Amino acid sequence: MDAGIVGLPNVGKSTTFNALTAAGALAANYPFATIEPNVGVVPVPDPRLQRIHAHIETDKVVPAALRLVDIAGIVKGASEGEGLGNKFLSHIRNVDAVLHVVRCFEDDDVTHVDGVVDPLRDLETIETELLLADMQAVEGATDKATRAAKSGDKAAKARVALLEKASALLNDGKPLRLLELTDDEAKEAKAFGFLTAKPMLYVCNVDESALPEGVNAHVEKVQQKAQAEGGLTVSVCAKLEAELSELDGDDRAEMLEAVGLTEPALDVLARAAYRLLGLQSYFTAGKQEIKAWTIPVGATAPQAAGVIHTDFEKGFIRAEVFSVEDLEGHGSEKAIRDAGKLRVEGKDYVVQDGDVCHFLFNV
């Protein structure tokens, strides 16, 4: 799962990135401190892995991974080349979701590109640039598809119809993630990499005074906007999280407790990103490794098996399934099997979040 971190300059993007990845990206108090996108891969925290490990010996435990891309600050006029413009916008096209960091704290020592902290204005600035960039992309793609459609190409005609629907929505000032599409249209649209079609998570960067609830007057405005759009928000104190990322175990827990938090921001953000994208985890467990696999909610057993290897999906025979709770209740996979609690599921089985699966296949 890839997520791009965007926002105006000086809102705490790179500090947030550093906190989540401990990658040491440059974070400075001036615009365009980030020029090339920083990339970090972080484990998705999931305590169920250790619960499984408590009952199954293994050589290694492998969590799911979240790939974060810290994209340089986008400014007004970016779609027309302002700042570093389209170069930055192009970095967003390949991610699955957008984490929009918005400044929700006051600090005279940290300059704001527009002088005054106003999260709704900041959100509108970024969203307008993404809309304008998509309008340009739709226009160019429509010209190309129209020429192809004149030769009678059915696929090109369908593409023109899709692009016309997209253009109408963009001209109304609405993002393409609100576009109602058939399954075939959705596949076609995804290939274009439209910026406003990507799910967006608003990340409110607050100061410590807003903790532990993570709410202040600025955050409330962002929450109201997200609620109206059916979107999600999370609050982080990027400065605090950056300090936490440099601590180990007990010291980290002590600092979290001191500010009234029970877990670091990565845990909260990863769960929110999963919800945003409609994702969940299932597990495989054996002597070589215990591993979390990321699948869409609603994936069938063959589809889940295909995430491991395409041959598993092609030659799927059945899945043997148990839950983490089953394992804790019986103590081992053998005891689950002996108790008759091991479930045998076929091709139509919809894998549930937290299932522990063993796939049988034949190629």
Could you please describe the fold and organization of this structure?
This protein is α/β, with parallel strands linked by helices and 363 residues long. It is 42% helix and 19% strand. The protein is built from 14 helices and twelve strands. The protein has helices at residues 13-21, 48-53, 85-92, 119-149, 154-171, 183-192, 217-229, 238-244, 249-258, 265-277, 301-308, 310-314, 324-330, 333-338; strands spanning 2-6, 38-43, 61-62, 65-70, 97-103, 200-205, 232-236, 279-285, 290-296, 316-323, 343-345, 355-361. A six-stranded mixed sheet has the order 2-4-1-5-6-7, sandwiched between helices. A three-stranded mixed sheet has the order 3-9-8. Helix 4 runs antiparallel to helix 5. It starts with a strand and ends with a strand. The model is unreliable at 23-35 and 81-86 (pLDDT under 50).
